[in-house]
Each structure stands twice: as structure tokens, then as C-alpha cells.
């Protein structure tokens, strides 16, 4: 475990030196505070509205941002080391490829977790201090669940970035594929489901369709954050999630399974890669 932590510490220090942690934290904090106070500006209302509305808006925003940030953070984790000649050097040390990959995952995962804690946690603190008569228990529960699930979503896309990075031989190819993965899960997947609904006039296997949401980690993430609030029903393709006969805990397990399976796949690809 010492070797894993040494690699993780190196990735964390690189993130601090490159200002990744600072930039992501500031981005999250500014956007979260802005959404909390200006989210209802389109309807002519300025100021904090409610915790459920704030979490729903933040979850929609994080669905776009967290995968993109995670992919940008880790798309060159393996191929970048290979191009720079440091991968061959790393493999001369008594380090297994699994330890190298796990160390990178821990380091990058800590960067994301700290950024979420500082950025969104700072926004929650601002709400607690500035909003009168706020329900602190509900605020802590809602933001706590939101921050943990956002971190898990980031970890899923970190692992997917390692899959891409281990598969290609050039950083430019990894960057292009990373953007493709982002488009697939964040934009294209739900559009395909909507197209199935429209073209089949609602007759496409209504029992199967809700389960297809579990094939997309971003949909699982949104279902986690939209459930548990009175009147917090999902819209669009996510409304299918209300037909899923599974408790919220299963959605959490599915998100964890996505991260674990993607990391195992990345390890299998990395193990077969020639340095």
C-alpha cells in the first residue's frame, strides 16, 4: 500500500501544482452559489428559493461538469506517461501495474473529492449562514448526498478515462475519445431513449425501458439526487426512473458498480499494454 500511496501523493501534488484543485473548487463554489441565488431569475425571482430546487439545478449542472472534468483530469494518465517515457521507468521499480493504476485513481479521486468538498461544501456553508430559517438538517442531508454522489460520478469517469488512456497510443487520440465518451453518456444516450419512445409511440417494451437508464451512470446520478424530495419528480426521459422497482440504495450500488467495473476493465487493458 505504500507504493500505491506514493503514486497517489505524486498525482495529488501534480494537481496542486497545476492548480487543478484550486480551479475546480472555485468553479464549483461560484456556480453553486450562483445557482442557489439566481436559479429562479428566469421566473422573475431573485434569491434563495428552496433546497430541493437548488439540489435539482446543481445536479443538472454537475451531470455536465463532473464527467468532463474527470475525463480531462485523467485521459492521459497512461498514454501520457508512455509518451513521456516515464511509464517504462515506473515499471523498472518493484511496482505492479495494478498498484500504478490504483495509485493514480486514488490521487485523482482525492483531487475530485476535495474539490467537491471545498466548492459545494462552501456553497452549503454560505446558504446556512445567509439564509434565514433554513432547515439545517435537510441542508446537510441534501448537500451531503449530492456531494458524495457527485464524487462517485467523477470516479466513474476517471476509471473510464483510464480505459481510453490504456487503449490508445497517442494523447490526441485519448483526448478525442474522451470527448466522445462525454457526448455519449451526457447527451446522446438520453436522446436515443427519447427517440425510441417517440418512434415506437410509447410501445417499446415499457417494462424494459426504465432499466436502460442503469446503463448510463449520469442517469443513475440524477435519479439519486432527484429522489427523496417531495414534489421532486424527474422530467423527460428520467421520468421513466419512477417505474424502476428498486430502492435508492440499489442506485448507489449501481454507481459503485460502474466505477468498479470500469476500473477493472482499465486494469485488464493496462496489464496487456506494452510499455
Automatic annotation (TrEMBL):
Pfam families: ABC2_membrane_2. One of its GO terms (molecular function) is ABC-type transporter activity. The chain crosses the membrane at residues 20-39, 51-75, 110-131, 143-164, 176-199, 249-270. Keywords: Membrane, Transmembrane, Transmembrane helix. The keyword Membrane applies. GO terms for cellular component: plasma membrane. This is ABC transporter permease.
Amino acid at each position: 500500500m505504500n507504493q500505491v500511496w506514493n503514486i497517489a501523493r505524486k498525482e495529488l501534488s501534480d494537481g496542486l501544482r497545476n492548480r487543478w484543485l484550486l480551479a475546480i473548487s472555485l468553479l464549483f463554489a461560484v456556480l453553486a452559489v450562483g445557482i442557489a441565488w439566481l436559479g429562479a431569475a428566469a421566473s422573475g425571482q431573485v434569491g434563495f428559493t428552496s433546497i430541493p430546487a437548488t439540489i435539482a439545478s446543481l445536479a443538472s449542472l454537475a451531470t455536465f461538469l463532473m464527467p468532463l472534468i474527470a475525463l480531462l483530469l485523467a485521459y492521459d494518465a497512461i498514454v501520457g506517461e508512455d509518451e513521456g517515457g516515464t511509464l517504462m521507468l515506473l515499471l523498472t521499480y518493484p511496482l505492479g501495474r495494478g498498484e500504478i493504476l490504483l495509485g493514480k485513481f486514488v490521487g485523482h479521486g482525492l483531487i475530485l473529492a476535495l474539490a467537491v468538498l471545498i466548492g459545494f461544501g462552501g456553497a452549503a456553508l454560505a446558504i446556512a449562514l445567509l439564509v434565514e430559517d433554513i432547515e439545517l438538517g435537510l441542508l446537510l442531508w441534501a448537500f451531503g448526498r449530492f456531494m458524495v454522489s457527485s464524487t462517485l460520478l467523477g470516479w466513474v469517469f476517471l476509471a473510464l478515462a483510464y480505459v481510453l488512456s490504456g487503449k490508445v497510443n497517442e494523447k490526441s487520440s485519448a483526448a478525442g475519445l474522451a470527448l466522445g465518451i462525454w457526448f455519449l453518456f451526457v447527451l446522446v444516450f438520453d436522446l436515443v431513449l427519447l427517440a425510441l419512445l417517440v418512434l415506437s409511440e410509447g410501445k417499446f417494451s415499457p417494462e424494459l425501458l426504465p432499466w436502460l437508464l442503469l446503463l448510463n451512470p449520469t442517469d443513475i446520478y440524477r435519479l439519486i439526487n432527484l429522489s427523496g424530495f417531495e414534489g421532486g419528480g424527474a422530467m423527460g426521459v428520467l421520468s421513466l426512473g419512477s417505474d424502476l422497482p428498486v430502492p435508492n440504495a440499489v442506485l448507489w450500488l449501481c454507481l459503485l458498480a460502474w466505477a468498479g467495473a470500469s476500473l477493472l476493465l482499465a486494469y485488464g487493458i493496462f496489464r496487456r499494454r506494452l510499455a
